[in-house]
Amino acid sequence: MPDEVVRFSTEFWYDFQSLNTMITIHPQYIKDTAGKNLVILPQEEFDILMEELDDIVDVRLYDEAKKDDTGERIPMDEAFKMIDEMQKQ
Questions:
Q1: Is the pTM of this model over 0.70?
Q2: How many helices (H) and strands (E) does the chain have?
Q3: The domain containing residue 58 runs over which residues?
């Protein structure tokens, strides 16, 4: 853990509008002895942010896939066979 030179805490509200989610985070800002700025979050808040970011990535991937959709569909049993084959490799 770096030596704390400067430390303060602020409460933020982040509104992930695309997901209609409101999150309160309590970052603590510190500087290490080299003057590098660092941010510390409680583990629970960090985990929530990581979950939200993962959801945002999923939405973006879905939107991208939807944009390239040709309408072709694969029957579910065939899709499962393809997945099983990929996992064996």
A1: no
A2: 2, 5
A3: 7-88
CA 43 to chain centre: 14
pLDDT tens, the chain, 89 aa long: 444 434 444 555 555 555 556 677 888 899 989 999 999 999 998 998 888 888 888 988 999 989 988 888 899 999 999 999 999 88
Q: List the one residue out of 30, 52, 57, 56 whose CA is nearest residue 41.
A: 30
Whether 2 maps to a domain, the answer reads no
Q: What angle do CA 8, 11, 14 make, to 5 degrees?
A: 135
For CA atoms 59, 63, 65, 69, the dihedral sign is positive
